[in-house]
Amino acid sequence: QAQLVESGGGLVQAGGSLRLSCAASGSIFRTHTIGWFRRAPGKEREFVAAITWRGANTYYSDSVKGRFTISKDNAENMVYLQMDSLRPEDTAIYSCAASTVFTAQVIGAMKSYSFWGQGTQATVSS
């Protein structure tokens, strides 16, 4: 059964960094695009970043481009989201998810993702 487990959230000051981790079961990791989404208080869930199953392509939302980096470790079945230059508006619950799509047109859409983790809280203080 597909399983995604996030870790690495916490509290950090504005300008600081956090690295989120997503542990994926082997069958998912080797065949699916992994994406990160976030839900801020009082807001809808939004796309943050995604990496295709081979790691050849990465995608970012405009709000995090240049500050966040998504990567994967094939040996450990892990996907990471390195978040630098954090801002208070980055405060959210961050969830990773798995999808069979890999094209730019749909990779940011929540409906493209079939499996979801429980999420990890990241809080950025001003």
Describe the structure.
The strands form two sheets. Strands 2, 4, 5, 6, 9, 10 and 11 form a seven-stranded mixed β-sheet that branches. The protein is globular and about 40 Å long. The protein is 3% helix and 48% strand. The protein has one helix at 26-29; strands spanning 4-7, 10-13, 18-24, 33-39, 46-51, 58-60, 68-73, 78-83, 92-99, 113-116, 120-125. It is mainly beta and 126 residues long. The chain starts with a strand and ends with a strand. It contains one helix and eleven strands; from the N terminus they run E-E-E-H-E-E-E-E-E-E-E-E.
Compact summary:
By secondary structure, the chain is mostly beta strands. Helix content is 3%, strand content 48%. It starts with a strand and ends with a strand.
The Cα radius of gyration reads 13 Å
Structural class, please? mainly beta
| Biggest beta sheet attributes | 7 strands, mixed
Total DSSP E strands: 11
Order of helices and strands: EEEHEEEEEEEE
The count of helical stretches stands at: 1
Oligomer: single chain
Shape: globular
Show unreliable segments: none
Strand content: over 45%
Helix content: under 10%
Q: What's the average pLDDT?
A: 94
Distance between the termini: 40 Å
